[in-house]
Request: fold
Amino acid sequence: MQHPSDILFEKHMTTLSSLCFKQARIAKQKIYQRKLKKWQRRLLNVQQAYYHQNRRAIIVFEGWDASGKGGAIRRVTERLDPRGFQVHPIGAPSQEEQGKHYLYRFQTRLPSPGKIAIFDRSWYGRVLVERIEGFASKPEWQRAYQEINEYERMLTDDNARIIKIFLHISPEEQLKRFSERLGNPVKRWKLTEEDIRNRQRWPEYEQAINQMFKYTSTQTSPWHPIAADHKWYARLEVLKHIVKTMEQGVDLSPPLVNQDVLIAARQHLGLDV
Reply:
């Protein structure tokens, strides 16, 4: 009888304070653009391999407000085949979803074989915003750590690859980005009252984030926090981590040409292939 895999936690606990902002920079735009194209090409190759091998990937983005999740996701997806991925921006649950288990609305958004699902915020809201804002009771968010670990184990046992990224910025950088948004009519809509209120509870959120790392960073689905004060650096780190994680144990060589296609090309197109 086949049993579920063991849930094993990472040996070295990740914390926000372990990140260094000073070295997390890229000096020149030319360097950034060159590396961006390189990693985007590699990601496209990985996407094609996942498609041909019916593999599934689930990419989870969490981070502070204004930490650059949207910009990072755009760089991840802009060179991909649009038929092979879907981005799910997660907000407050609908009235119908509120009457169901909190994982229900994520279960309905999981990728089919050969596809990639990208979550802009995720089920981790249970142990972050729902915890801090009181939308979940203490027993509810405390037992969510085990529920989430079991949920992700179920997905990885079913051969889905889960990649979890947290974009970390300093309070000073967040204030700067909030100010820029208020001063830019095109971006002003991005700043909400909720963003401003959340900032007032920074220490509580930081504690919740570190506990999330501690209790849900498993060996099969580890958290990868990124110092994101510098957007170029953060976007490249996101791409590199996704590519390297998705490539593990995957045959990236192009698939063989279908023999029926070759025969049809000779007969109907006159091609010597």
